[in-house]
Automatic annotation (TrEMBL):
Protein name: Polyprenyl synthetase family protein
Gene3D superfamilies: Farnesyl Diphosphate Synthase
Biased amino acid composition, Polar residues: 1-17
Pfam families in alphabetical order: polyprenyl_synt (PF00348)
Length: 363
């Protein structure tokens, strides 16, 4: 049995986990366990107080700087990076630098997104800007982005250079998507096509990179890397479609965010765009309300009924159902992208299981 040493000296199996729900849980845990020691080492390079601020963001320290066991993210991206290495016939450990680099870029974006969106909670804790101030959120985010490229380039191989190019391209698209998202908040209407383009940049690009970066580090040619990237892109669109549903109708106890969180931020997410495009009385009434909202500088004095009314109109116009169907469509397209790629059977099964997990999650 292949093993490696994880955080706190635990021995973690790097063998291919089983399929099914238990297999997905094992797959996510393997990604977390193999990537976390290197992620901690990368964060340790930062100058104080950035190192402790980053550690707070990752859940390793509490607000007072004491060790914490707060839950981190879902670890989907590290799991994908390790799986993509195996898709190229390499050991999963080959993908660890890619997993760490992608996680650093992902968390750079979260730090900045929380500040730009005014989010005060993430993973059931106060966000970094709320605890340590906006300046630290910006600086630590920038530092994580720089570290991501260092981690890959320090490998000093041609494949590492190829991986870095893919990561920087994905990072630029991610930033493009965030800029689009912000600009849409103050528009009365956004088309479904515009929304899909924005979400393909904001979420799809980095998941696409995570799905291919391990394979690139393992020496895969561009044909296989591009196939895995296509899978990850459509997986990202499915992931974001589910996020959009949770952003309006998610249980705050599960998501760690306020009720109607996306409506509070004027997000023109897929359910909203689809509802506005549907036509009919509910769609027209929603359009009138959102046009009024776009001219209102502060929604903080809106009561729960106001947001519940908008959510009900989105659902009545068909935005919720359409988005659920779109998540399933993107899931199917992601799986089909793997056909004919010559990926080992057990690895393909895990990629499929991970895609299934993305469309049925509750947070």
């Amino acid at each position: 049995m292949s093993t490696t040493t994880g955080h706190r000296g635990d021995t973690v199996s790097s063998e291919q986990p089983p399929t099914g729900d238990a297999g997905v849980a094992a797959l996510l845990e393997r990604g977390r366990a193999l990537a976390t020691p290197e992620l901690r080492a990368a964060v340790h390079r930062l100058e104080p107080p950035m190192d402790s601020v980053a550690a707070y963001h990752f859940g390793w320290l509490d607000a007072d700087g004491r060790p914490s066991t707060a839950g981190g993210g879902k670890a989907v991206r590290p799991a994908l990076a390790l799986l993509s290495a195996e898709a190229a016939g390499a050991p999963p450990e080959t993908g660890i630098p890619g997993a760490v680099a992608v996680e650093l870029v992902h968390n750079f974006s979260l730090l900045h997104d929380d500040l730009m969106d005014g989010d005060e909670q993430r993973r059931h804790r106060d966000t970094v800007w709320k605890v340590h101030g906006p300046a630290q959120a910006i600086l630590v985010g920038d530092a994580l982005f720089a570290l991501a490229n260092e981690i890959l380039l320090e490998l000093g191989t041609a494949d590492a250079g190829r991986a870095t190019r893919r990561l920087t391209t994905a990072s630029r698209k991610l930033i493009d998507g965030q800029a689009q998202d912000i600009s849409y908040e103050h528009r009365e209407r956004v088309t479904v096509e515009e929304c899909l383009e924005m979400e393909g940049n904001k979420t799809g690009a980095l998941l696409a990179c995570a799905s291919s970066i391990g394979a690139v580090l393992g020496g895969a040619d561009d044909t296989l890397a591009d196939t895995l990237e296509a899978y990850g892109h459509h997986l990202g669109l499915a992931f974001q479609a589910v996020d959009d549903l949770l952003g309006i109708w998610g249980d705050p106890e599960a998501t760690g965010k306020q009720t109607w969180s996306d409506l509070r931020q004027r997000k023109k997410s897929l359910p909203v765009a689809a509802a506005l495009a549907a036509g009919g009385p509910a769609s027209e009434q929603l359009a009138e309300l959102l046009a009024h909202d776009a001219k209102t500088h502060d929604l903080s004095n809106f009561d729960e009924h106001a947001f519940a009314t908008r959510a009900a109109l989105i659902e009545e116009a068909g935005g919720r159902e359409w988005t659920s169907e779109e998540a399933r469509r993107q899931h199917t397209t992601a799986i089909r992208a793997l056909d004919g790629a010559g990926i080992p059977g057990p690895v393909r099964e895990q990629l499929v299981a991970l895609a299934d997990f993305v469309v049925v999650r509750e947070r």
